[in-house]
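Translate structure to sequence.
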């Protein structure tokens, strides 16, 4: 395995971001990370998201966000692992670089849970548990 380093970071404000879409939030943080890193290209990206489909009606983030970010065509993958979706995105990016498959991989997570009523957000979180247990 190769050595791996985090060479740039970016983050948006936390809270009720009513005026921003799911992809706008991810792109804002991604642009900050790209600027912080100084890189000129990205080989691939991982997008962590628990439930964009339920919370804001947006699925298939991996095919949309690279386009909004202006980095198409690159491979992109949406990963979902309940509350650790963003962490799983980082793990997958680490493994891709460590394996030598890619050199520069962007990873992050995004969610808009406050755009829905409490009962819908609670349902989305509860759905992460084993329904048959």
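Result:
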């Amino acid at each position: 395995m190769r050595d791996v380093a985090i060479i740039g970071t970016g983050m948006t404000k936390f809270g009720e971001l009513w005026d921003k879409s799911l992809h706008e939030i991810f792109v804002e943080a991604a642009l900050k990370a790209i600027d912080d890193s100084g890189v000129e290209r990205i080989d691939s990206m991982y997008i962590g998201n628990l439930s964009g489909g339920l919370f804001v009606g947006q699925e298939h983030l991996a095919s949309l966000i690279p386009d909004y970010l202006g980095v198409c065509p690159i491979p992109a993958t949406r990963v979902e692992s309940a509350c650790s979706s963003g962490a799983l995105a980082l793990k997958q990016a680490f493994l891709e670089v460590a394996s030598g498959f890619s050199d520069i991989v962007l990873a992050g997570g995004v969610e808009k849970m406050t755009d829905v009523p409490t009962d819908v957000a609670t349902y989305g979180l509860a759905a992460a548990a084993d329904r048959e247990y």
